[in-house]
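RECORD TYPE: inverse folding
INPUT: structure tokens
STRUCTURE:
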């Protein structure tokens, strides 16, 4: 390992994928990832012994490579045992800012409860293992340039009230649960900003009105109104621009995009097949300087962002993208790597994950019990992959669990609501954290409240109260069904009558799909977990799968049988196959843990891409595609013909 006192490099925001927060970038930032000093605090003595003070450097007896969790190999600690409290420390160089500027310290995600000190002064704390937080550390900086940051992270491994998703509460992974991710697992970085600066932004599109709405939050209320210039560009061409006076901490700006009106919208709309992104620039400038005090409203904050122009919804039992039926071909994505756990091995791995999903023929991914790195979502936006955002759940129902999950889920929705790739929200999965929802009015109220809370923050996307079964209020009725036979799919979902029996009867998983017997009002039915096919284990100590096959040919045939039965149902609006990769003892991926395909990619793609009876136009699309491909293969064609 290198010396953790090495000065961190300054980075440029020119490449969005290189930034820890691609949709909210400033020109320069300082990367604090790399080697930090590290210590376990199993006796929780650090606070009492004041490990956060600079004189306590000797207690940090290990080194860790951030942002990899200490349980993982890439952290170079690689200790998967129970260590509920961990400490980090490093030095960095930062001069005292001038002209009233401020220095911000950002954390992408730290699991679970975090306290941060700079030069021995507490600068803030945060609870929640999957969401970002920022502290203004300006007042803690000292002259001379060298600064010390200390981080304490507490992650109680057996606390069932803590939203943890598929992180195991046992000493080692078992069943469907994996090794834990403790402490820092997403990037840490510094920024210098003006005293009055953009603190948050969110985009929303109204295609019918031909408008884009910006929700802007400043670091505080301006002393006097300031000027905000907002510009939207596509490949260097101006789409819209508006300059407004901003006098409140939070404001909304509506920009009219003329090309969205009058039948010209097609070239602008985002979809997996055409992932068009619009560049956005926000420039905050000083306005009327009368009444300013101490130079606090110095002008000069500029932020780069992007957005996708698209709409999502549902009607007549189908999912809609840009107002038209769109069949959901998704795969379950655990986002777990054997050498780095929930943290990606590197930034390139995030892009490659998206590329692999698309190469297999899927158009979407259901992120399972994890809030993904914003850089992953960037590549989904950039390359075109639909995403279902799902909360990591707790495993008990209590006042504390309700409070923790609700606060963190609110942060999740606020963080990710501007990504065009995100098309559905899932706060609960399979009644995790609400185990008695079928009989407890209190637990049903919680699931329903999460549905309405999510819709209140973001009314533009469908919300599922509790995916898999035991729905209360949901815009999409997701069903989990691990039958190993295609014939069972047809029996349960092949006709309106059989679908009604499945939805309103006991359900395929010994739990009712719908708890309140609601009247269907256009909700799509999607098989949101199925398959889970595994090779037969060969003397392994730990193994988990839903059903087994004994050869690649058997995997291909069974996978094709199940997917074919779903595509043949006129009642299903899509599917999500379990799962993309093997994950520790779960050996039911289409890829191994190291992302090697178990079947030829083209075989999987051909199966997944078959036309669906639910959308008859897909049969015509498939015919036209086959005709074009045959024409391209015809011998003796000119280059111009082949290009058509």
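DESIGNED SEQUENCE:
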């Amino acid at each position: 390992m290198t010396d953790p006192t090495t000065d961190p490099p300054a980075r440029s925001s020119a490449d969005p994928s290189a930034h820890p927060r691609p949709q909210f970038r400033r020109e320069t930032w300082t990367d604090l990832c790399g080697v930090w000093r590290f210590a376990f605090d199993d006796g929780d003595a650090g606070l009492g012994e004041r490990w956060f003070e600079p004189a306590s450097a000797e207690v940090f007896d290990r080194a860790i490579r951030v942002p990899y969790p200490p349980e993982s190999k890439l952290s170079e600690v690689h200790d998967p045992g129970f260590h509920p409290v961990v400490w980090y420390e490093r030095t960095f160089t930062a001069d005292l800012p001038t002209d009233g500027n401020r220095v911000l310290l950002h954390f992408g995600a730290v699991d679970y409860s975090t306290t941060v000190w700079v030069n021995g002064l507490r600068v803030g704390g945060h609870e929640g293992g999957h969401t970002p937080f920022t502290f203004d550390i300006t007042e803690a900086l000292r002259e001379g340039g060298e600064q010390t940051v200390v981080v304490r992270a507490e992650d109680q491994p057996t606390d069932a009230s803590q939203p943890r998703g598929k992180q195991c509460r046992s000493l080692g992974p078992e069943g469907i649960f994996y090794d834990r991710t403790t402490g820092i697992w997403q990037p840490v970085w510094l920024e210098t900003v003006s005293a009055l600066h953009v603190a948050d932004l969110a985009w929303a599109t109204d295609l019918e009105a031909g408008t884009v709405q910006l929700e802007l939050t400043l670091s505080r209320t301006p002393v006097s109104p300031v000027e905000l210039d907002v510009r939207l560009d596509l490949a260097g061409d101006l789409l819209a621009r508006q300059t407004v006076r901003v006098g409140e901490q939070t404001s909304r700006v509506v920009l009219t995009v003329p090309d969205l009106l009058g039948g010209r919208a097609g070239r602008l709309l985002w979809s997996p097949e055409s992932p068009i992104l619009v560049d956005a620039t926000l420039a905050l400038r000083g306005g009327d300087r009368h009444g300013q005090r101490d130079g606090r409203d110095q002008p000069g904050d500029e932020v780069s962002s992007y957005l996708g122009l698209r709409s999502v919804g549902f009607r007549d039992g189908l999912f809609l993208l840009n107002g038209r039926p769109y069949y959901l071909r998704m795969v379950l994505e655990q986002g777990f790597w054997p050498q780095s756990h929930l943290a990606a091995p590197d930034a390139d791995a995030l892009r490659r994950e998206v590329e692999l999903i698309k190469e297999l023929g899927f158009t979407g991914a259901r992120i399972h019990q994890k809030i993904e790195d914003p850089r992953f979502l960037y590549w989904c936006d950039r390359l075109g992959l639909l995403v279902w955002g799902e909360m990591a759940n707790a495993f008990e129902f209590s006042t504390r669990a309700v409070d923790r999950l609700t606060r963190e889920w609110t942060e999740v929705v606020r963080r990710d609501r501007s990504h065009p790739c995100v098309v559905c929200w899932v706060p609960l999965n399979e009644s995790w954290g609400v185990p008695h929802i079928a009989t407890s009015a209190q637990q049903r109220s919680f699931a329903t409240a999460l549905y309405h809370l999510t819709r209140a923050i973001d009314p533009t996307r469908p919300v599922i109260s509790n995916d898999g079964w035991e729905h209360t209020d949901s815009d999409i009725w997701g069903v989990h069904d691990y039958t190993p036979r295609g014939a069972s799919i047809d029996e349960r979902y092949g006709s309106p009558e059989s679908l009604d029996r499945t939805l309103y009867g006991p359900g395929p998983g010994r739990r009712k799909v719908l708890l309140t017997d609601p009247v269907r009002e256009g909700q799509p039915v999607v098989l949101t977990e199925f398959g889970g096919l595994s090779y037969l284990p060969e003397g392994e100590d730990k193994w988990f799968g839903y059903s087994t096959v004994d050869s690649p040919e058997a995997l291909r045939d069974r996978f094709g049988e199940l997917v074919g039965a779903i595509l043949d149902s006129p009642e299903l609006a899509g599917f999500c196959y379990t799962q993309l990769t093997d994950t520790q003892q779960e050996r039911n991926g289409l890829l191994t843990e190291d992302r090697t395909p178990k079947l030829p990619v083209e075989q999987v793609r051909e199966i997944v891409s078959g036309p669906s009876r639910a959308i008859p136009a897909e049969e015509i699309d498939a015919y036209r595609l086959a005709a074009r491909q045959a024409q391209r293969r015809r011998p003796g064609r000119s280059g111009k013909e082949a290009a058509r």
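NOTES: The mean pLDDT is 92.
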